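Run folding on both entries below.
>entry_1
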Amino acid sequence: MLQVNCDEKIIGIEKWIFRFLCGYALFSSISIAGGNVFLGLAVAAGLVRLYKKHDDWRELLTIDKALSGPFFLMVGVFLLVSIFSTDIVHSGNVLFNHYVNRLMPFLLVVMFVREKKQLIWLVLLAGASMLINNLACIIQWNVIGGEYVKEQRTPGFIGTMMTAGFNSMWLPVLFLLGAKTEGKWKYCVWMAMLIAVIGTVYNNTRGAWLAITITMAVTLFLYAKSKVKALAFLLVLALGVGVVVHNVDWMADRVTSIVNPTSNSSSNERLILWESARNMVADYPLTGVGYGGFEKNYQEKYILPEARYRELGHAHNNFYNVLAETGYPGAIALCIWWLGTVVYGLNGWRKKKNIAYLLMLAVFLGIMLQGVTEYTMGDSIVMKFFWFAMGSCVQWLRLTEE
């Protein structure tokens, strides 16, 4: 009787963890504070569950080593080189925040979401959150207007670059789901994608546009049975987008600035930042300035005279930021993680044809390609959702393949 009561309590706690995760998913794209409240409650409930029953934690946390190995290698290198940081305490705090705190959504989903139905609910609620944020972008541009149109950027509820980060993951995922689903759900997915596309256009983040375009092309080509038809579809789509861009002046100006970065102040500023990052690693090739140390070192020593935005705190690029902060060892480890995750998704799809492998690849490529022009790995709300999405893909694989 005691064992039965204990099991019932564990099941009850896990139901509350799921409910709190539902709250996080619903607020994920529309409120940083709201998302953090529900995520904090989920973590607290998870700790209570592990306190009451912890003999199964290894089984719950079983992750394919081909996926987890490159990641842990990267984090290990970051820890090692940060022993020599210019501010070791700060580096330790940032590392804990990036690779413990922000990893909580992944751990909670993998350990405590037991059923496919629960995963579907989490995805639906997160998708609703994304749509609400993109509807806000559309309203900001078309209804409120004013400074939003003047600045040609709409932030939604969470900020311009954060909205771009979410859409860089969501649009390729919706594209794949639209191709995969049947019946009325297909129309729902395509309608959601249309709203997200319009919101992304008004958000007007060039790095996100490029990341979404490349990721959608790659994942669709992999998914399609007929590569010739996929290529033809992509060419027609590119032609249609080109016609629209050519006839909308502000969009044409933004696209032109991609291929001519020195003509745009924000693009040129990124080139200046990357030069400063190279100067940092030239002085600290084996260790970098320390994880999380870019801002202080940039503003106090490495900022170039021609820099216009002198308050910036990161390199606006994942690779250059990691290179500056962790030196060549950290940059190499980062590339190993990237390559390992991409290969894992590609091999999984090739061997098993489980859509979750491609969805994982879409999420990963979307956020990391946007990281060519933004330090997405340093953005808290974006990376928490990234780990939530990756955890959902991993758990779907476990539930379907087992």
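>entry_2
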Amino acid sequence: MASGIDAAKAALTAADDALVRGFPGEAEKAFAEALAGFRAPDLRLGEAHALRGLAQCHLATGRTDVAQAQAREAVAAYQQLRAMLEQDDSRGTHAVIWRDALEAEAASLVLLAEILLREGQGHDARETLSFARAIYQELGVAKSEGGALSGMGRVALREGRLRDAEEAFLKALQAHRQTGHIAGQVGSWLHLAELYRIEGRIEDAERALNAARPLAHDTESPLLVARVLAALGAVMLQVPRPASAQTLYEEALPRIREAGDREMEGFAQLGLGQALSRQEDPGALDHLAAGIGVLAELGHHHGLAGGMHRVAEHGLRVDRPILALVAAETSRRLWATTDPVRGVGQALRLVVKSLSALRAYRETLTAALAREAVAGSIQPNAVEVAAYYRDHLPKKWTAELEGLSESELLTEVSLRTAGVLATAQVEIDVESLSTVEGALRALHHVLAGLPRVAAEVDPLDEPTDLHVEPSAHESVPIPAALDTGRLPEESS
């Protein structure tokens, strides 16, 4: 590449000299040669690659606005290069560069989608992924194209096409093995492990990560080693083996900090906080709050929703239902744009539990019916829980909600949850919870006033089984509060 630039510079000097000497024909030929050299396809491709790399760097350090602009600039640069090659009828001569540009464009679109998801622009992210998917389909699945295959798998995973994702990741793994690309193999194992963890195939996930671990050490990359350790920590949480998860996250964090990956540091702090929470360690909330702080600093909309979800779980675990309710409702609102079915359904599950722990049964019913409407098709427990509350709460409460649409039920959840928080004297701007700044402010406010708020509410004075979700293999007794008619009366 350097020799090409040198030749272009030499042609430019010769052209200037010819122009000065009065030979415009000779100068024109030399200027054209210089222009062609400076516009060489390999240089244009390198420029676009650099833009994409800068976007990745800025994403890792939290400058999502710059990252998005450079990702878009990279996509445009790849497209312009391919158009130039096609216009010059030199695609045959530069077929490899044309194909590299197309594959890199798809990778840039996947990167752009990740940035958009982080910023809470779920619709635009899904549209961007559809463009990437179309390109990958055009590229095909040749075994030599490990990068393209990994990209196809990531698109499929985002779209919920899990079998297509697994097939693509396995083919990518084989491609990287054939070319001896160790880091690529680690990446493929990590993708497979995440897929298996999502599916609940814990043994497969652990096997994948145990295969990745020695390869990551071979690369001598602290970040790759940390990624494997953190992924193993996530698997241990799901087993659950929280003490093992704690050890893995504590081992990963120094390496993550050494590599300077702030996003990964935020997620590792959340994982460590969750592991400590499950061991009833009082330091859990500090790590959860630290992880949320990092992700908020990065503007990571989707990650912040997941962090708040973990805080809500912790709040229920330590009998702090107000903390749980604020965090769960924040998670629900943040996920409304980036994960409107699975994520919102999971958040509503914790909203239901929190409201029930606070004995706000009418509001609990509303949240349960909303969850059934949103996620009942993919979360069977949502249907069971909604049926349970229908059966055990006043029929007139159910009747007033049954005719509402999904969006109307969600509006009712917002209004009634805000009412519960207001009654508990939690002074937060509920409408701002869907923003990174508003979510962070609310969490800090509730944490600062937690002992006072918890003491005022103290929902555990009256035992109740209402917050225990039924399962298909477990019958749940009717709570005494319902048997004796001690539920709050319907307000006038």
